[in-house]
Design goal:
Blueprint lengths: L13 E3 L2 E3 L3 E3 L23 E7 L12 E4 L2 E4 L8 H8 L9 E6 L4 H12 L5 E5 L16 H14 L4 E4 L7 H11 L3 E4 L3 E3 L2 E2 L4 E2 L6 E4 L4 H15 L6 E4 L5 H10 L3 E4 L9 H15 L16
Parallel strand pairs: 3-4, 3-16, 4-7, 7-8, 8-9, 9-10, 10-15, 15-16
Antiparallel strand pairs: 1-2, 5-6, 6-14, 11-14, 12-13
Helix pairs in contact: 2-3, 3-4, 4-5, 5-6, 6-7
């Protein structure tokens, strides 16, 4: 059992991809850097979350997109960072040794421009203390390469298959909402060896400066996150759960979660864990509030744990 579990009420502990998590909350990739950024905020603790997904990592360092990279929209945010990162070797050798793995679980986030790059970065993280590996095949804010693989089931499956051969650690595939049939993609990824699924990544969007008649985002398009996408994310989680439950594959539900009630909705729709991202920018102490709210709900409804809530949506 993770040492951090003692600080979290017992009903909040969940089993995810064979790992014991001390909370159903997962901090999403790109929102918390490499696990150290929010630890600078007074009152924040990594012990309040079940896992942290580190920033997207590629084989070689990337500078990312030209500015502007972030733009606030009604009930949401556009971002086009472009996978800026120092490269896998630097992350494994220099960053991972600075993380306290007694506080929470840490998941790597693997990205690439080719199937071979995905496999190589995965192999590098396999030889590290990382607890699990999230495969990012669905990032909408870079223009080239493998991050578009997530829109095509055949390519998604090939990436997962290659990464599966490169590691014995749990693999979580991050699914794109920007595709025709997310159920089919989920099925193919599971058959290729994915142990878990993250549903969903951001939705493609853009913003225009009417004075200059130019895109606000330097990359033209970016990924839309925040409360604006929550209804879409909920539906996608429900759809993927219809496939995933047959294979006992758990889901990280994500997309616009900002309250305990939001988190509960995703669990009822089929998510075992819930991802927080955009909401942390305006409330860094949100994790404790969601933990408390979910624990209260379980107590009021006399549920023994989160497992009794997952996929309990009534449609009759």
């Amino acid at each position: 059992m993770n040492a951090a579990a003692a600080s979290i009420p017992n009903p909040l502990r969940v089993r995810f991809c064979g790992l014991d998590l001390n909370s159903p909350i997962v901090l999403l990739s790109g929102c918390v850097g490499f696990g150290e950024e929010y630890t600078r905020v007074e009152g924040f603790s990594n012990r309040d979350v079940g896992a942290i997904v580190l920033k997207g990592t590629t084989g070689q360092p990337r500078l990312g997109n030209k500015p502007h990279r972030v733009y606030e929209t009604p009930s949401g945010m556009l971002n086009a960072i472009g996978l800026q990162n120092p490269g896998a070797e630097h992350v494994v050798r220099r960053i991972l040794p600075t993380l306290d793995f007694s506080e929470t679980r840490f998941f790597a986030n693997v990205s690439g421009s080719t199937i071979e790059e995905y496999a190589e970065v995965t192999r590098r993280f396999d030889d590290s203390p990382i607890d699990a590996i999230e495969i990012n095949i669905s990032c909408p804010n870079v223009k080239e390469g493998g991050v578009a693989f997530g829109n095509y089931p055949d390519m998604s499956a090939k990436v997962v298959e290659a990464c599966r051969k490169a590691t014995s650690k749990p693999i979580i595939t991050k699914l794109s909402p920007n595709q025709t049939d997310i159920r089919e993609n989920a099925r193919r990824c599971i058959e290729a060896g994915s142990d878990g699924l993250a549903v969903i990544n951001t939705i493609m969007g853009m913003a225009i400066d009417v004075k200059s008649r130019r895109p606000v985002i330097g990359n033209i398009q970016g990924g839309l996150s925040g409360p604006a996408i929550k209804p879409i994310a909920l539906l996608k989680v429900h759809q993927v759960y219809e496939v995933a439950r047959k294979h006992n594959v758990p889901i990280i539900g994500q997309g616009g979660i900002a309250t305990a009630e939001d988190a509960l909705e995703f669990m009822i729709a089929g998510a075992t864990t819930v991802g927080l991202g955009t909401a942390l920018f305006y409330d860094p102490l949100l994790c404790r509030k969601i933990n408390a709210g979910v624990a209260d709900y379980l107590d009021i409804h006399k549920l023994g744990g989160i497992a009794e809530l997952v996929g309990s949506l009534r449609t009759d």
